[in-house]
Write a structure and sequence with these properties.
Radius of gyration: 25 Å
Structural class: alpha/beta
Helix content: 25-40%
Number of helices: 16
Length: 401
């Protein structure tokens, strides 16, 4: 852009981000929250830029619109609600699922709709949409740090928008022709070298700025699936719903090898590999003396076996919201898949729950982290440390009464 962001030849994605962030701050264009660095930047004129949505035929025809939760898209979220369209907002950093569906109260005024479009409103007026929610998205609105008129986009560097889109493809929520829109300041429209783009990078079809509506006519294909070999154990840990998608895709025979698994050295030091080693220690003969290991059979009683425990504290994990259609064998398979094999499993299918015993609190907390966000039989499991933990020594005394 003339007189705006100047990029040197050979600039990296990181260089582009820093230049845009610096320019927005130095030029007085940055808006709350400040500083805009490390964010999808908010800018003066964002609200006006969002009104250009109303002129897009694709927006007029859309029933369901997915819009990211960042500040510069706040007015886009309001306009979507005001148009009585279904608004889906990704959960922040995808920690608790993929989407929240915003459900304004009956007869909501403009003022209430404006609240619904804020981060606070998203918390108060939304319901989660899971992997099996059968959502069909007609238009996607994403944030950008920089974008080119060719439709090539650079985000803040964490990969969430790209991953959101790939997950929507995996769950059938978007199609190859689903339009993608971004809302930015004019200074964020820059020349981006094509060699900076990766296969998993999301491209855009429309760019809305305070002064222009740009149709990119981008021919570069959007991500058509999750590229598992570019997903790290760290990202898998940060985005619980990814675990469910990976489990689901592995069941269909897809190659879901992670980035870290391509190197034996890297794999040996990953949290999952270390966790697997810890789980292996859990299932040595000490487990067999009390109750059979998970692959053999399950118990119907929640009493702990003194012979199983030794000394210290067995820690129990509660698993709830188990679908009536799920069998204990499916849960066992998932536990092995996620390196969360317990010392023993207490299956209470009629109550839609199970209890998992681990050798100590650290191993139990690791299992909770691994299983959080897992969906089986259409239900997202509720996984947490059980409220009533018992000391092994106390159990031994009680068992002798």
């Amino acid at each position: 852009m003339e007189g705006g962001v100047r990029l040197r030849a050979g600039a990296s994605k990181g260089d582009v981000r820093e230049k845009v962030w610096d320019y927005l701050e130095a030029s007085g264009l940055a808006d709350f929250p400040r500083p805009v660095h490390r964010r999808i930047p908010n800018f003066k004129g964002a609200s006006h830029a969002a009104t250009r949505l109303l002129g897009l035929q694709e927006f007029k025809a859309a029933n369901t619109v997915k819009i990211n939760p960042d500040a510069p898209q706040k007015n886009a979220r309001f306009l979507t609600l005001e148009a009585r369209k279904t608004l889906l907002v990704p959960t922040p950093r995808l920690r608790t699922g993929l989407f929240n569906k915003i459900v304004p109260p009956s007869g909501a005024t403009k003022e209430i709709l404006r609240i619904c479009a804020t981060s606070q409103g998203i918390k108060e007026y939304s319901v989660p949409v899971g992997l099996d929610g059968k959502a069909r998205v007609d238009l996607v609105v994403v944030g950008s740090v920089a974008v080119s008129e060719k439709g090539w986009r650079i985000g803040k560097g964490e990969g969430y928008a790209d991953m959101e889109y790939a997950m929507m493809v995996s769950m059938g929520a978007v199609q190859e022709d689903t339009p993608v829109v971004t809302i930015v300041h004019d200074c964020q429209v820059v020349d981006i070298a094509e060699e900076l783009l990766d296969d998993h990078d999301l491209t855009v079809d429309y760019i809305l700025t305070p002064t222009r509506t740009i149709k990119t006519n981008c021919k570069r294909p959007k991500p058509q699936e999750i590229i598992w070999h570019k997903v790290s154990y760290e990202m898998l840990g940060k985005i619980p719903i990814l675990k469910s998608l990976r489990y689901r895709e592995r069941q269909t025979g897809k190659d879901v090898t992670l980035q870290d698994e391509h190197s034996d050295l890297a794999n040996a030091n990953t949290p999952a590999a270390l966790n697997e080693k810890a789980m292996a220690e859990n299932t040595r003969p000490q487990a067999a003396t009390g109750s059979a290991q998970i692959g053999q059979h399950y118990v119907e009683s929640d009493s702990l076996s003194p012979r199983l425990e030794g000394s210290g504290m067995i820690t129990t994990v509660y698993v709830g919201n188990i679908s009536p259609s799920v069998r204990v064998s499916e849960l066992k398979c998932a536990l092995r898949e996620f390196h969360a094999t317990p010392l023993r499993l207490n299956w209470q299918g009629a109550q839609h729950r199970a209890f998992l015993d681990y050798k100590d609190k650290a191993t139990a907390e690791s299992a909770v982290s691994s299983l959080k966000g897992l969906s089986l039989g259409g239900n997202t499991l509720r996984v947490e440390l059980a409220k009533n933990q018992r000391n092994k020594g106390q159990v031994e005394i009680n068992s002798q009464k």
